[in-house]
């Protein structure tokens, strides 16, 4: 099982990157982030890709990235953008772990973060909280049904999440 990839999915701001880094700190895994891959591919920030090229263009890049991950990665923790869970080949990439938290607690976590403003600003789909809540409501069941494993992170205790993930895989 060790060479299987671990894919972290979940809503924007739930802590996929934070938890990926925490797993790395406690294991021999390396981590990669799909938004980082896309930004380096385009040499542009996600926010600018959305503004200049539009969301469908970004989704095409996510697909390209998913195919690349399937072909090239093993034994890697892959943190993903909040919409990456829709990739058709996601189960071919590895074990899918859904980091689950309520919309309200995610927003509270982001608002209380030291660099809160930047965390909202860099996310085009978090500019309008009513719209973001609609997206959350549309996705919440889909995240669960795509997931191989669901990890409750409502308390945002990264260490506890890591323990539960390492136990589950
Ligand atoms: C998105 C989430 C973002 C980023 C893009 C779209 C989404 O990543 O991929 O802005 O559709 O939920 P985070 O989940 O890391 O914020």
How would you describe this protein?
The chain has 169 residues and is an alpha/beta fold. The protein has a single domain (5-164), classed as 3-Layer(aba) Sandwich (Rossmann fold), CATH 3.40.50. Helix content is 56%, strand content 14%. Helix 1 (16-25) packs across helix 9 (158-168), helix 2 packs across helix 4 (55-72) and helix 3 crosses helix 4. Bound molecules: shikimate-3-phosphate (S3P). Shikimate-3-phosphate (S3P) is lined by residues 12, 35, 46, 81-83, 123-125.
Question: CATH superfamily membership, which one?
Answer: P-loop containing nucleotide triphosphate hydrolases
Radius of gyration: 15 Å
> Mean pLDDT, rounded to whole units?
96
Bound molecules: shikimate-3-phosphate
Given helix and strand content, the structural type is alpha/beta
Widest sheet: strand ordering: 2-3-1-4-5
Share of residues in strands: 5-15%
Distance between the termini: 8 Å
Largest sheet: 5 strands, parallel
The unreliable regions are none
Number of domains: 1
- N to C succession of SSEs: EHEHHHEHEHHHEH
- Under the CATH scheme, which class? Alpha Beta
What CATH architecture would you give? 3-Layer(aba) Sandwich
Helix content range: 55-70%
Count of DSSP strands: 5
CATH topology: Rossmann fold
Shape: globular
Number of helices: 9
In short:
The chain has 169 residues and is of the alpha/beta class.
Topology:
Blueprint: E1 5-9, H1 16-25, E2 30-33, H2 34-42, H3 46-53, H4 55-72, E3 76-79, H5 90-93, E4 94-100, H6 103-112, H7 116-121, H8 129-146, E5 149-152, H9 158-168
Parallel strand pairs: 1-3, 1-4, 2-3, 4-5
The structure holds shikimate-3-phosphate.
